[in-house]
Fold:
Amino acid sequence: VFCLSVVGPGGWSHTTTLAALFGCVPVIVQDNVTQPYEEDLPYPAFSLRVPLRQVPELPNILAQIPEAQVEQFQRALKCVWRRFVWTSVHGDVADEDDSQDAFATLMLILKRRLESEQLKKLTQMVSYCDANFKDVLNSDGTFIMKSR
Structure:
């Protein structure tokens, strides 16, 4: 049910991806290491993060997780595992299409970052050109104008 995902040489490793592909709930023991697509995927919904200092307690930690929570982890994992597979590059694993694969996920993240950077630049330009107005970027990415 659980698969250990530990730090690899130089930091991040592929063990979280492998756990997701095998349908195991990743138990991530990687302090201060960002996981693939962590900014977009709901890792707390399908994985468990355990600090390195708590590894000796790991058997007890896992034993205390209710079966209902394990089932929730597994349901969430079924929704996200495709995001770890490069179907559009290497072909399908389980007859999945490539609309939600790792490449598509990466493109969505890069697009959002690009749009965010473009909005920041526009905000700076408008603020510089017209001191009476300040552009604000909402958390949902929408652009609003507020008068000072």
